[in-house]
Design goal:
The chain is α/β, with parallel strands linked by helices. It is 54% helix and 11% strand. Strand 2 (35-39), helix 2 (46-51) and strand 3 (56-60) form a beta-alpha-beta unit. The strands form two sheets. The protein has a seven-stranded mixed beta sheet with strand order 3-2-1-4-7-5-8, sandwiched between helices. The protein has a two-stranded parallel sheet with strand order 6-9. Bound molecules: guanosine-5'-diphosphate-alpha-D-mannose and manganese (II) ion. Residues 90, 92, 94, 207, 212 line the site of manganese (II) ion (MN).
Length: 356
């Protein structure tokens, strides 16, 4: 192992059978850059390449245990070595080492705890994606934005700079998911811990050789994560609470006033309580202008989306019923469609994170 005396930054690269890519890639680093390769039992001779470079430390874990868990192990080692900043990047050449100086300087200048090399901000891009892989990446980031807070455009990117503070925090609170989903979990954890997360435009290059290690199981794991840990279930619970409050007010008012008026009041009360719960609970972490003016605007938009939801529900119901569908089924489909539209409007239009 090399001694990291006074080392200010360290580059962590997870690798799994990337022999040819690594061989090319390692040639492009300065000889004074400190690199940590975290390998999971590659059978293509990664040791030989690593041994050629005195500035490269190889951590051998033996068997594939996931991209993010490899990054975490590399991070621990970098912290032990005294690194102030830790850069993580892929070992297949898709992340251009030429960005490192700029992204580091940006991190220092911003005082950021995490800088994400982003493909989806102005100036960034992708060259190296096959069309299906590109869609997976787009959809994954879309799911991130509708499910979580923080408004990051490329929360799945693996090209990152972590401050020592962020890395120490992550070692104390490691992500539960050791695979690709852990990348997003890390972004969320740091955001929730109040750390400064920034994006820096990068172009994601073509893989030099070999294939992506992303599996269907990883993709599935990620979507389960967004469903379980995201805001959607909160939104569903708020909707259910609205239905109960609606019923309760109708129950209280109907014996006293003309029933259609009672129903309208009950509906508006539940729209209002839904708004309050979404404001204070579902989307409470989002950086929003919480002043009166903007809050009232959100309230109007929320009312509009509720009316839109009712209309969509009704139109789908009538449409399916005319096509001969069972009425209860037609209504259920209407409810689900309307609910989805409302969730998208709420998470993407009404309660939009100001971080973007
Ligand atoms: N040690 C170790 N263990 N390394 C791994 C493992 C693992 O289980 N799985 C993948 N790697 C290494 C690969 O060898 C490569 O160097 C790097 O991690 C990225 O893996 P790829 O398989 O090339 O990922 P990708 O190109 O499909 O995904 C890229 O984009 C994703 C977002 O769309 C990466 O940048 C990911 O980090 C990113 O989440
Ligand atoms: Mn790759």
């Amino acid at each position: 192992m090399f001694s990291f005396n006074m080392v200010s930054s360290c580059i962590v690269i997870p690798v799994l059978n990337e022999h040819d890519n690594l061989k090319m890639m390692l040639q492009t680093f300065h000889s004074d850059a400190h690199l940590i390769l975290v390998d999971d039992g590659s059978t293509d001779g990664v040791e030989e390449i690593a041994a050629k470079y005195p500035n490269v430390l190889l951590i051998e874990r033996g068997r594939a245990s996931g991209l993010v868990s490899a990054i975490m192990d590399g991070m621990k080692e970098a912290l032990k070595g005294g690194a102030d900043y830790i850069i993580t990047m892929d070992g297949d050449g898709q992340h251009d080492p030429l960005y490192i100086d700029d992204i580091l300087e940006f991190a220092k200048g911003e005082g950021a705890d995490l800088v994400i090399g982003s493909r989806y901000v102005k100036g960034g891009g992708t060259q190296g994606f096959t069309p299906p892989r590109r869609e997976i990446s787009r959809v994954a980031n879309y799911f991130y934005r509708i499910s979580f807070d923080g408004g990051i455009n490329d929360a799945t990117s693996g090209f990152r700079v972590y401050s020592r503070r962020a890395a120490e925090y992550l070692v104390r609170n490691p992500p539960l998911r050791g695979s690709y989903a852990g990348q997003v979990e890390i972004v969320n954890e740091l955001y929730r811990a109040g750390m400064k997360v920034k994006e820096f435009p990068i172009t994601f290059r073509r893989r030099m050789s070999g294939d992506s290690k992303l599996s269907w199981a990883d993709i599935f794991d990620y979507f389960i994560y967004t469903l379980v840990s995201g805001n959607l279930w909160k939104y569903i619970l708020v909707g259910a609470s609205g239905a109960i409050i609606n019923e309760l007010f109708l129950f209280l008012l109907a014996p006293r006033i003309w029933f259609p008026v009672a129903d309208i009041i009950a509906i508006e009360v539940s729209i209002t309580t839904n708004f309050m719960f979404n404001e204070r609970w579902t989307f409470w972490r989002r950086k929003l202008d919480r002043g009166l003016r903007r809050t009232v605007t959100r309230f109007y938009l929320h009312n509009a989306s509720s009316v839109l939801g009712l209309s969509v529900n009704f139109i789908v119901f009538i449409g399916l019923a005319l096509l001969g569908s069972n009425l209860l089924l037609a209504n259920l489909v209407g409810i689900v469609v309307a609910f989805s539209i409302r969730y998208l409007m709420s998470s993407q239009v009404i309660w939009v994170d100001g971080h973007r």
